[in-house]
Design a protein that fits this description.
By secondary structure, this protein is of the alpha/beta class. The chain is about 40% helix and about 15% strand. It contains 13 helices and 9 strands. The chain has helices spanning about 10-20, 50-55, 80-85, 100-105, 110-120, 145-150, 165-180, 195-210, 220-225, 230-245, 245-250, 255-260, 265-275, and strands at about 1-5, 25-30, 40-45, 60-65, 90-95, 125-130, 150-155, 185-190, 215. The strands form 2 sheets. Strands 3-2-1-4-5-6-8 form a 7-stranded parallel beta sheet, with helices on both faces. The chain has a two-stranded parallel sheet with strand order 7-9. The radius of gyration is 18 Å and the shape is globular.
């Protein structure tokens, strides 16, 4: 049995599907009830309360660990989840971490995530760590404004990073959960090209066949929008990166191709597969 947390999210959904298609027994965990592929067991749990997760881990061999937004708050205790995995007899954990652990080690939420990575390394479990940069699927935040106003609103319109397709993250995660050769590896996951928010808006317009205007937000406006769903510390750490990415954050990583044997998907490819959300 493999347990997938965040199973209804942009990484968890394709990962759950891939594992089920590989004939693995899967328990999908999310905060709310949701439809799942045939044969997948679903359980509702809040990772901020580790005891909620314990029943899902009973009898499982591996865990994909994706922290919910509130577990990035400075008073959270995500390392309790590693202790729970050890106590439940889990043998392997694949952690979805963040590129910023290496590139922005002093960011408050990066310090906490590095602590979680260290706890996992010291746990005695088999482990792999995935460190993605920005997600292509963050563009879904623009879906309503594109549908209703034909507008994308984002900060730092002409500053780009190599955003990664969540489907690529899921494919790498699946390989790490199923294969011993990835034990002890840290993979940095990016897309194949640096792309700015303004260029993303243009790619969406091309796929829709209709104009999409770009409106540049101030940092304060962007933070106000982000903190509706994530802690302010995580919003600040994220905005620091997208405002002025370092050379390391602009680097195109080879790791998606190393693991999957193919080049990472472009933003345009992600748009083509998800365009219905913007219509």
């Amino acid at each position: 049995m493999i347990v997938v947390t965040g199973a209804t999210g942009n990484v968890g959904r394709p990962l759950t599907r891939a594992l089920a298609e590989a004939s693995e027994q899967v328990t999908a965990v999310s905060r709310h009830a949701a439809a799942m592929p045939d044969g997948v067991r679903h359980m509702v749990a809040d990772l901020a309360e580790p005891a909620d997760l314990a029943p899902a881990l009973d009898g499982a061999k591996a865990l994909f660990l994706l922290l919910s937004g509130d577990l990035h708050a400075l008073d959270a205790r995500p390392t309790d989840l590693v202790d729970l995995a050890v106590g439940s007899g889990i043998r392997r954990v694949v952690l979805l971490s963040s590129q910023g652990v290496a590139t922005r080690p002093l960011g408050p939420t990066r310090v906490a995530m590095r602590g979680l990575e260290n706890a996992l390394r010291q746990s005695g479990l088999d482990w792999a760590v995935l460190r993605p940069g920005g997600f292509a699927s963050n563009a879904l935040a623009w879906a309503e404004s594109i549908r209703s106003q034909g507008t994308v609103a984002a900060p730092f319109g002409d500053v780009g990073v190599p955003v990664v397709d969540p489907a690529d993250i899921a494919e790498v995660a699946s390989a790490c959960l199923l294969g011993d050769r990835h034990t002890g590896e840290i993979y940095e996951l990016t897309g194949p090209e640096v792309i700015t928010p303004r260029q993303q808006a243009a790619a969406l317009a091309a796929a829709l066949g209709s104009p999409v205007r770009f409106h540049e937000l101030t940092r304060d406006e962007a933070k106000a929008a982000m903190t509706r769903s994530v802690p302010p510390e995580l919003a600040d750490d994220t905005l620091d990166i997208i405002a002025a990415p370092t050379a390391a954050e602009l680097r195109i990583s080879p790791d998606v191709e190393r693991v999957t044997g193919r080049a990472p998907h472009s933003f345009a490819n992600w748009v083509a597969r998800n365009i219905a959300a913007f219509r």
